[in-house]
UniProtKB/TrEMBL annotation, chain A:
Pfam families: EMC3_TMCO1
Ranges for region Disordered: 52-71
Residues annotated as signal peptide: 1-21
Annotated GO CC locations: endoplasmic reticulum membrane
Keywords: Calcium, Calcium channel, Calcium transport, Coiled coil, Endoplasmic reticulum, Ion channel, Ion transport, Membrane, Signal, Transmembrane, Transmembrane helix, Transport
A GO molecular-function annotation: calcium channel activity
Ligase keyword on record: no
Segments passing through the bilayer: 92-111
Organism in which the protein naturally occurs: Ceratosolen solmsi marchali
Record-given protein name: Calcium load-activated calcium channel
Family classification: Belongs to the TMCO1 family.
Main location group: endoplasmic reticulum
UniProtKB/TrEMBL annotation, chain B:
Pfam families (alphabetical): EMC6
Superkingdom of this protein's organism: Eukaryota
PANTHER family (alphabetical): GEL COMPLEX SUBUNIT OPTI, PROTEIN C20ORF24 RAB5-INTERACTING PROTEIN
Keywords: Endoplasmic reticulum, Membrane, Transmembrane, Transmembrane helix
GO biological-process terms attached to the record: mitochondrial respirasome assembly
Subcellular location: Endoplasmic reticulum membrane
Gene: LOC105359127
Membrane topology: Multi-pass membrane protein
Keyword Secreted: no
Name this polypeptide is given: Uncharacterized protein C20orf24 homolog
Family per record: Belongs to the EMC6 family.
Keyword NADP recorded: no
Transmembrane segment boundaries: 103-122
Predominant location: endoplasmic reticulum
Length: 188, 125
């Protein structure tokens, strides 16, 4: 049993590292960042935002109607491009999510019905469904794979993110952050 | 979403100040960067979580008492640390509750994992 416990800890360290590590970066790079479409879009967005800022700075408050319209049009285009960019990124997020789901279900079937650890406490009833999943008997101190895996992931993933500096800053997460995950500059 | 590099990690202290490690163990240090202090709190929590997990597993402490004692030790020791050892102004960080919350869930998960692993390894098998 203890071998299983340690193995699960090891698995969750690996998956957490994989999620943050080079492999996924590489996959994303292969799927998204390398593609011409993405490069073009990115360059354009950068160029546009710079141009827009400059124009705003140069004119200050004294804008006539025509210039205002021009800026508005530019902003609209920038918004559209930004949206396209996140769509491209989303594609890779889905692929990664899919791969991880497949991995998890594989481990789930390997450890199906096996007691992987003994809990030193009896979990409250709404957690028992998770901690005693697919286990026989009424001894609720027996622990199933999924519960231990979730706990390991909870503790390891965030610490790794923080250690590597990938965790979103506190102010950013307070403001809600982006639903598309980490900022693009970390994928370099 | 911009992130200031360096503030997320431990050990990247400002050059004019002593390193973050030294400030963390010196009483009444000055914390110009709030993120740095929050990082110290965060990592202290993780270390406490793991140490307490190992201790409870070795004893072995069981049941609800173990969970309760962990919460008390974790919240209590860190509260003493920031309120009497460092004497920071809690309001600057949004109150004592915000400081108590910092990294608590992660530390709790880490505590459970070490507790369960040590307990299963030593007392079953």
């Amino acid at each position: 049993m203890w071998a299983d416990t340690v193995l699960i800890l090891f698995i969750s360290i690996c998956t957490a590292l994989l999620g943050e590590g080079k492999e996924v970066k590489w996959l994303t790079w292969l799927m998204v960042y390398r593609t011409e479409k993405y490069q073009k879009l990115k360059a354009e967005v950068e160029k546009q935002s710079k141009k827009l800022e400059k124009r705003k700075e140069a004119h200050g408050d004294s804008l006539d109607k025509q210039q205002k319209k021009k800026i508005e049009r530019e902003e609209e285009r920038l918004k559209n491009n930004n949206r396209d960019l996140s769509l491209v990124k989303m594609k890779s997020m889905f692929a990664i999510g899919f791969a991880f789901t497949a991995l998890l279900s594989m481990f789930n079937s390997i450890f199906d019905g096996r007691i992987v650890a003994r809990l030193p406490f009896v979990p409250i009833s709404w957690i028992q469904g998770l901690s005693h999943r697919n286990l026989l008997g009424d001894d609720y101190t027996e622990c199933s794979f999924i519960f231990l895996y979730i706990l390991c992931t909870m503790s390891i993933r965030q610490n790794i993110q923080k250690l590597l500096g990938f965790a979103p800053s506190r102010t950013a997460s307070k403001q809600g952050g982006s639903i598309f995950g980490p900022p693009p500059q970390q994928f370099k | 979403m911009s992130r200031v590099k360096g503030t997320d990690r431990l050990g990247n202290g400002n050059k004019s100040e002593p390193s973050i490690w030294i400030r963390a163990i010196t009483a009444n240090s000055e914390w110009t960067d709030k993120e740095e202090f929050l990082d110290v709190i965060y990592w202290a929590r993780q270390v406490i979580g793991i140490i307490v997990g190992i201790a409870w597993g070795l004893i072995p402490l069981k049941g609800f008492l173990g969970l309760l004692l962990f919460v008390l030790v974790n919240a209590g020791s860190l509260y003493l640390y920031f309120s009497s050892f460092q004497q920071v102004d809690e309001e600057e960080f949004g109150g004592a509750w915000e400081l108590t919350k910092e990294g608590f869930m992660t530390s709790f998960a880490g505590f459970l994992v070490t507790w369960i692993i040590i307990y299963s390894g030593l007392h079953y098998d």
